[in-house]
Design brief:
CATH topology of the largest domain in chain A: Rossmann fold
Number of helices of chain B: 3
CATH superfamily of the largest domain in chain A: P-loop containing nucleotide triphosphate hydrolases
Oligomer: heterodimer
Shape of chain B: globular
CATH class of chain B: Mainly Alpha
Mean pLDDT of chain A: 91
CATH architecture of the largest domain in chain A: 3-Layer(aba) Sandwich
Order of helices and strands of chain A: EEEEEEEHHEEHEEEEHEEHEEHHEH
Mean pLDDT of chain B: 88
Helix content of chain A: 25-40%
Largest interface: A-B, 15 and 15 residues
Number of strands of chain A: 18
Number of domains of chain A: 2
Strand content of chain A: 25-35%
Low-confidence stretches of chain A: none
CATH class of the largest domain in chain A: Alpha Beta
Distance between the termini of chain A: 38 Å
Number of helices of chain A: 8
Distance between the termini of chain B: 16 Å
CATH architecture of chain B: Orthogonal Bundle
Radius of gyration of chain B: 13 Å
Structural class of chain A: alpha+beta
Number of domains of chain B: 1
Shape of chain A: globular
Largest sheet of chain A: 7 strands, mixed
Structural class of chain B: alpha+beta
Strand order of the largest sheet of chain B: 4-5-6
Chain lengths: 298, 97
């Protein structure tokens, strides 16, 4: 089947919901019946569960490959060299499994490719990407949905892939938006389909005619999202201050070497593009004005 | 042998190899990251000049003189400022002797 995500073209017998048009680097994806076992190897990272928000997960190092175990979701085996990802044959629905595939497993592959993953949404403003960066539950996805409703292309909803170089660019990720139910009820997302409800969010597959492909989109700016009680304020920040914030949003494995690679990438990003602080009220009634402010001034 | 703070003027400071740094454009100085601790530090333009002169070969005195040569309108307390900067770098384990 055709399609791409994060610049990869899945080579697989499986069906995918969130691919964009176009081609990419081959990424082998196949099912494996792991029987729900927890992986061996040294433990690299663990995400503790947050009820209703995040599942328990563990990432193990197997030397050349990784295994990601997700409570209730099965085990993924990731070999970034090939690159290839084995997904669990049992556990969750194919759509939820694909959402996990484009999370940590894809991050491990794109890091090995030399790209920089960042905890940020991304939108396309007139052919240039703007990153909407912030920690979990800072309103990234809601704001990205606001851009979609205003007619802009959403490039990523939560995790962005950045290609560094003289002109940094964003490589579009899965064409999905997982937004709060109250937001979904009030926003008109043209052509989007609800494909996987089940938690406190509605999982939308974006309109295929508006997804575009996953070729790199030149990066215009980074907007750091901050809550405010006192209206909307947009202010450019120094590269040094930006780097401090971006560091907290980067994906890093334990170890000096990985920290050094992440630091170099983030420093190049902070020094190469304009970074803004956006303080805004976290009210749905302010969403349209926030979108307009970013589109007009960033 | 004269000395200021914890470092002798004829000592030859070295960058800790477990520190990554990046000089920033637009006269913003630089940022340093201690890769073991994950601690992050910003330095100003003068700090960046000093940092780039630290090579394990130059003495503190030679660093001060080179900074003086490279700096327009060097402040009268330049030597004290450089020594204080190096002392703080040592305390943060960013520099070793």
């Amino acid at each position: 089947m055709g399609g791409s995500c994060f610049g990869y073209r899945p080579v697989s017998d499986l069906a995918f919901e969130y691919l964009r048009e176009g081609d990419g680097d081959p990424l082998e994806v196949r099912e494996r019946d792991s029987g729900g076992e927890e992986p061996g190897g040294s433990l690299l990272a663990e995400w503790t569960p947050i009820p209703g928000k995040r599942l328990w997960a563990r990432l193990h190092d197997e030397g050349e490959a990784y295994r990601l175990w997700v409570d209730g979701g099965g085990t993924f085996r990731i070999d970034p060299r090939t690159p290839s990802i084995e997904v669990p044959a049992r556990g969750e629905t194919p759509v939820r499994r694909e959402e996990r595939l484009w999370g940590i497993p894809a991050v491990l592959c794109l890091r090995a490719r030399g790209d920089l993953p960042l905890h940020a949404a991304a939108v396309d403003l007139g052919g240039e990407a703007v990153l909407l960066a912030g920690p979990g539950y800072s309103g990234k996805t809601t704001l990205a949905a606001g851009f979609d409703a205003a007619g802009h292309r959403v490039l990523s909803e939560d995790l962005s892939c950045i290609r560094l170089g003289p002109a940094p660019a964003v490589i579009p990720g899965p064409a999905m938006l997982r937004i709060r139910r109250d937001v979904a009820e009030r926003l008109a997302l043209s052509g989007a389909r609800d494909v996987a409800a089940g938690d406190d969010r509605v999982h939308f597959s974006l309109d295929p005619s508006r997804r575009g492909d996953s070729r790199p989109v030149p990066l215009r700016a980074v907007v750091m999202l901050r809550p405010s009680q006192n209206g909307l304020a947009l202010e450019e920040v120094s590269a040094a201050d930006a780097l401090r914030d971006l560091w907290s949003l980067s994906f890093r494995l334990p170890g000096v070497e990985d920290r050094a690679v992440s630091f170099r990438g983030l420093a190049a990003l902070a020094d190469g593009v304009r970074v803004w602080n956006l303080a805004r009220p976290l009210r749905l009634s302010e969403l349209g004005r926030t979108v307009e402010t970013i589109a007009a001034h960033v | 042998m004269s000395s200021h703070g914890g470092g002798a003027i004829d000592s030859k400071p070295e960058k800790n190899p477990d520190v990554a740094y990046r000089a920033l454009g637009s006269e913003e100085g630089a940022v340093l990251l201690h890769l073991q601790s994950g601690e992050y530090h910003g330095v100003n333009e003068l700090g960046l000049v000093v940092w780039e002169l630290i090579d394990g070969e130059r003495t503190v005195g030679e660093i001060i003189e080179t900074v003086r040569e490279q700096t327009d309108d060097a402040p009268p307390r330049l030597a004290d400022d450089v020594v204080a900067f190096l002392d703080s770098m040592r305390q943060l384990d960013l520099v070793v002797d």
